[in-house]
Each structure stands twice: as C-alpha cells, then as structure tokens.
Amino acid sequence: MSDVETSERSETVPGDAGDFDLESFFPYLVRVYYRSVSESVTSIYATLFGLSVSEWRAMAVLGTDQAMSASELVARSSMDKVNVSRAVQGLRKGGLLKRDIDGDDRRRSVLRLTEKGRETLRTLVPLVRKLEEELLEGLSSDERDTLIRLMEKVRKNADALRRTPH
User: pLDDT band at 3, cuts 50/70/90?
Assistant: First the structure.
C-alpha cells in the first residue's frame, strides 16, 4: 500500500466509527448519569426496607392515599406490566400493598398501600428528598429549572424518535 493510500485511510470523516468517542456520546452519558443517580436513591430504599426499584416506584406513584388499577400504575410509573406485576407481588408479600375490589365497578380491582406501606413511604420520602437536594447541590434555582426543561426537551425528542420508524 502506498503512503497516499495509507494516509487517506487513516483520515476520519466526522461521524465515522473512527471518530466515535463513547465517553462523549450523549446516550451513553445519560446511562452513566442514570446509573449513578439511581444507585444513590436505591441505597436508601433497598438498605432500609429491602425494596426493589419497581417496588419503590410503585409505592411512590400510589402515594399515601392513592388507589389505582395495575394498568393505571403501568401508565403512570414508566414501568412495563411485568415489572408492575412483580412489584405488586413483592409489596403484597411484604404487607405494604393490598388489592381491593373497586366499590364502583366490582369487576375492577384497585391497589392501595396498607398502613405499613403508607408509614414506609412517609419514612422514605424525606430521605429521598434530602438526597435529591444533595444531588442538586451547587445548582441555583434557575439552573435546576433549566436542567429540568432541557431534560424534558430531550425526553420529548426521544419519544418522537421512538414513534418514527428509522
């Protein structure tokens, strides 16, 4: 191979695989940030109460006085049916959640936290809020608002791309 051919092959065009740096690739960075933040929060609810991510999220969506069906929990939690089902089973087994028949529609069952579940949530919320403050430490109120707005824009873009075949 001549020197000209070698130099032409070693040059990279922006967007080529040779120019790709995973460490600055936005989707990778999101995953790194997610994992770091998620592990911080998990250390609270998993350590104190042995809850899984799905169980914690289901409890947080239900809140201390909500009642909803499993399908509503799927829609509001960003979890799939399998994870919601596992969370419901785990929470029921731990005495944190109960399933009742809806008073208005006897064909529909609703999920709600038990008193033990509500007390667990009341214990956890101040702890995760404190962690949230620590995670956002050093950001001004305007910076926090900007961060949330930017994250929302990226989420909307991702949702639109997911609905568009490539």
Answer: low
8 pLDDT more than 90: no
The secondary structure of the chain in percent helix, strand, coil, rounded to multiples of 5, reads 70, 5, 25
* Beta strand spans in the chain (E): 97-101, 109-113
Residue that is written with structure tokens 């028949």 in the block:
101
User: Quick check: is 7 in a domain?
Assistant: no
Contact 101, 109 (CB under 8 A): yes
Look up the domain containing 108 and give its range: 22-129
Q: Which residues contact 127 (CB under 8 A, 6 or more apart)?
A: 44, 48
CA distance 94 to 101: 20
Residue 65 counted as domain residue: yes
Q: Is residue 55 part of a domain?
A: yes
The domain tally of the chain equals 1
Do residues 91 and 55 make contact, with C-beta atoms less than 8 angstroms apart?
A: yes
* C-alpha–C-alpha distance, residues 69 and 140, integer Å: 39
Q: Answer yes or no: is 73 within a domain.
A: yes
